[in-house]
Structures are given as structure tokens and as C-alpha cells.
UniProtKB/TrEMBL annotation:
Pfam family, one: ELFV_dehydrog_N
Taxonomic classification: Bacteria, Pseudomonadati, Pseudomonadota, Betaproteobacteria, Burkholderiales
Domain of life: Bacteria
Keyword line: Oxidoreductase
Glutamate/phenylalanine/leucine/valine/L-tryptophan dehydrogenase C-terminal domain mapped to chain residues: 193-424
Annotated source species: Pseudoduganella chitinolytica
Entry protein name: Glutamate dehydrogenase
CDD domains, per database record: NAD_bind_1_Glu_DH
PROSITE patterns hit by this protein: GLFV_DEHYDROGENASE (PS00074)
Similarity section: Belongs to the Glu/Leu/Phe/Val dehydrogenases family.
Xref: InterPro entries: Aminoacid_DH-like_N_sf, Glu/Leu/Phe/Val/Trp_DH, Glu/Leu/Phe/Val/Trp_DH_C, Glu/Leu/Phe/Val/Trp_DH_dimer, Glu/Leu/Phe/Val_DH_AS, Glu_DH, NAD(P)-bd_dom_sf, NAD_bind_Glu_DH
Length: 427
């Protein structure tokens, strides 16, 4: 990797996900032409807020948690990005996620910059009351920099509609007025959008269908393996199954279930709701260990869990034709090269999972106008935007003879840096 002028708060020996992002920027820089003079803008978040989040536990003790909100780049509009609650959240991770949001928003051409937030906490260890207090205190701490025209949070790992409702209400108490557009991914009753919950998974399916057509893979009968069976992987699996694909393997944090004839996705959803994971699903014909998942033969592989899942260690074992990155940053740059050498088509996260932020954009627009669209309208608009974005990225990849990931970065970074250049520097 190119030597970078690193900020003092990062460990040069272990850059984590931020290092992965920097490598991706290095790969796109030669394709940016005269705009490359601005490329350092992309290597430095605009604003980083680190906060202490103290709460009173149910037993009367005081607990402190580490929270972040990172605004990477806002040249094209207000910050946009989720908030995750996870015990392994780090500043490097939130920085990288905010940067990928910058690229993602520009790739599908919605008028947002990139932002992300997180708290270092295992939410399973908190009661509902403690979770609410944590959310509200975190919101108050970051309220200085969020707002419907400044930075708009959304759900991410271990956060949901309820968390967004608490964030919206907390912001309303602080500001003294209700502003429904301060967050997206809210309950429908509070200005949420129809189709938002399924949007990321639907977007994965739409670009998967486009990629399959380019590769001559028929969706009907295609063998699909999915890592992660939550809001992204679970929805994508359902849509592929409804289109006639066979979901041959699913892995989550509890285990891996396999059925070469195709798992019954509807029954698997019921099992997960009752058991808390896929482990022990009676409709499986085999249960494998974690690493064995990557050796399962498929036509389409969907990593939809966390970042850095596909590495140089397991990439050589992967046997598939198309990878749809439902998660953020699931493939390391070293693994990228191995998979590209194997002629596996990778639809990158910054394109494949952009359905969620696209419908978040629709929600934000609906909140401002107080005029709400039907689910059919939303799904149709989402499909068109995802198809157009895939087509534009595919054309750049063919013209430049680069991977879809590099092509997406070329398209997105060009848009971001054009905005940066025409706006100029202040003062």
C-alpha cells in the first residue's frame, strides 16, 4: 500500500478497515485525471466526533460506552449513514464505513455525503430500558452535528426502527420541535417509508439479476449461498428463492446450514425467529463449521454479514460465478485480486447494497414534503436507480478494463471530486 500521511489517532501497524479503504482509493487514483489533485480529500474524514455515553444500569450502577459519529465528505450534500451497536466497533471501522457511504451515495447519484456512527456495546447485554437510555444519551451527545440538512442517521448492525424512533424523539426534545427527517429507517407511523426495511436486500437482488444476465447465469435454478440472514441476507434470500433460485447454504453467527436441493427460506425465517439463528434448522441436510461455508459450490455468493469476511486465506476455496456484497467491506483487497484472477464477478458493496440508502433518500424526501408514495412506486423507483447505476458502472468497467469495484470508485469519486473542485476551498 502507498505510504499515507496518517492521523495521530490511528495505529499505522494495524489500520483495520480504514486501511482497506485507503488501498481502494490508491487503485482508483490513476483513473481520476486532473481531479487527482483533490484525492487527499478522500483520505481524510471531514469531521470525527468521539463521545462518552454514560447510562444508569437497571441495578443502579453507572456504565460508560464509547461512541462515534464520523462525517467523511459532504461536498455533494448532508451526511448520510447508519449507526451500529456492536462490541467490536472501532474508530477505524466507523471511518471506513463513512467513506464507503460517500462512495455509495455518489455511485447511485443521491445528493448525500458519507457519514457513519457507532457505539462499542453488545446490545444483547442491555435491557430494553438500558438500550433506550443508551440511544437517547448518544443522540444528545452527537446532536451538535446531526440534523435533517446536516447529517441523517439510519439503522445499521443491531439497530432498527425502534432505535431510530428514540433518536428522532430525543432530537425533537433537544431542538424543541419535531423534525421527522433527522433520521431514516423509522417506523411508518413516524414518517418512515414503505419498502425501507426490505430495500437493501431488494437492491442486492436487483443488481444480482443484472450481473447474472451479463454473465449468462439464469436466476431460475441458480444456486445461491448467503452469509448473514438478517435484514439484508434474509431479504435477498427470499427474493432469489421467489425468483426460482435454490438457496443451497446459509451461514449466520450460530452456524451453517446446507441443502443442495434448496433450503425452504420461509421455514428458515420462522426457525431463526424462534431459535435466534439458523443452527439446528430441521430442513437442512447438513450442518457445517464456519470455514467450510466458503468451499460450498454456488452460482451466486452473497456475503451479507460484517466486513473482512473474504480474505486471502479463504478466497482460493471459493467456487462461485458471482459475488454480491450485501455487507460493507466483506472482501479484503488481497482477496479481491485472487477472486478476479479466478474470473469471479464481484458486484461491490458500494453498489450492491446501495438500495437501503436509496430508499432512505426517498424517505427523507417524503418527510420534507409530507407526501408519501405507495410501496409499488418506491420499489419501481429503487429498481430503476439500481439498474441505471449498475449499467453505468458496467460501462466504465468495460471501457477502462477494470473490476466493477474500481469502476464504481471511478464513477463515484469523480462525482465527489468534481463537486469539491467546483465548490473550491473556504476561505
Amino acid at each position: 500500500m502507498t505510504n499515507h500521511a496518517l492521523p495521530s489517532y490511528l495505529n499505522a501497524d494495524d489500520l483495520g478497515p480504514w486501511g482497506q479503504y485507503l488501498q481502494q482509493i490508491d487503485r482508483v487514483t490513476p483513473h481520476l485525471g486532473s481531479l487527482s489533485r483533490w484525492v487527499e480529500t478522500l483520505k481524510r474524514p471531514k469531521r470525527i466526533l468521539t463521545v462518552d455515553v454514560p447510562i444508569e444500569r437497571d441495578d443502579g450502577t453507572i456504565a460508560h460506552f464509547e461512541g462515534y459519529r464520523v462525517q467523511h465528505n459532504m461536498s455533494r450534500g448532508p451526511g448520510k449513514g447508519g449507526v451500529r451497536f456492536h462490541q467490536d466497533v472501532t474508530l477505524s471501522e466507523v471511518m471506513a464505513l463513512s467513506a464507503w457511504m460517500t462512495v455509495k451515495n455518489a455511485a447511485v447519484n443521491v445528493p448525500y455525503g458519507g457519514a457513519k456512527g457507532g457505539i462499542r456495546v453488545d446490545p444483547k447485554t442491555l435491557s430494553r430500558g438500558e438500550l433506550q437510555r443508551l440511544t437517547r444519551r448518544y443522540t444528545s451527545e452527537i446532536s451538535l452535528i446531526i440534523g435533517p440538512t446536516k447529517d441523517i442517521p439510519a439503522p445499521d448492525v443491531n439497530t432498527n426502527e425502534q432505535v431510530m424512533a428514540w433518536m428522532m424523539d430525543s432530537y425533537a426534545m433537544i431542538e424543541g420541535n419535531l423534525s421527522t427527517g433527522v433520521v431514516t429507517g423509522k417506523p411508518i407511523s413516524l414518517g418512515g417509508s414503505l419498502g425501507r426495511r426490505e430495500a437493501t436486500g431488494r437492491g442486492v437482488f436487483v443488481v444480482g439479476r443484472e450481473a447474472a444476465a451479463k454473465r449468462g447465469v439464469s436466476i431460475a435454478g441458480a444456486r445461491v449461498a448467503v452469509q448473514g440472514f438478517g435484514n439484508v441476507g434474509g431479504v435477498a434470500a427470499t427474493m432469489f428463492a421467489e425468483a426460482g433460485s435454490k438457496i443451497v447454504a446459509v451461514q449466520d453467527h450460530t452456524g451453517t446450514v446446507v441443502h443442495q436441493g434448496g433450503l425452504d427460506v420461509a421455514l428458515l425465517h420462522k426457525h431463526v425467529a424462534e431459535a435466534g439463528g439458523v443452527k439446528g434448522f430441521p430442513g437442512a441436510e447438513a450442518f457445517l463449521d464456519r470455514d467450510a461455508f466458503w468451499g460450498i459450490e454456488s452460482d451466486i455468493l452473497i456475503p451479507a454479514a460484517l466486513e473482512q469476511q473474504i480474505t486471502a486465506a479463504n478466497a482460493p476455496r471459493i467456487r462461485t460465478k458471482i459475488i454480491l456484497e450485501g455487507a460493507n467491506g466483506p472482501t479484503t483487497p488481497e482477496a479481491d485480486d485472487i477472486l478476479n484472477d479466478k474470473d469471479i464477478l464481484i458486484v461491490p458493496d458500494v453498489l450492491a447494497n446501495a438500495g437501503g440508502v436509496t430508499v432512505s433518500y426517498f424517505e427523507w424526501v417524503q418527510d420534507f414534503s409530507s407526501f408519501f408514495w405507495s410501496e409499488e412506486e418506491i420499489n419501481a423507483r429503487l429498481t430503476r436507480i439500481m439498474q441505471d447505476a449498475f449499467s453505468a458502472v458496467w460501462d466504465v468497467a468495460q471501457e477502462k478494463k477494470v473490476s466493477l469495484r474500481t469502476a464504481t470508485f471511478i464513477l463515484a469519486c469523480t462525482r465527489v471530486l468534481q463537486a469539491r473542485e467546483v465548490r473550491g476551498l473556504y476561505p
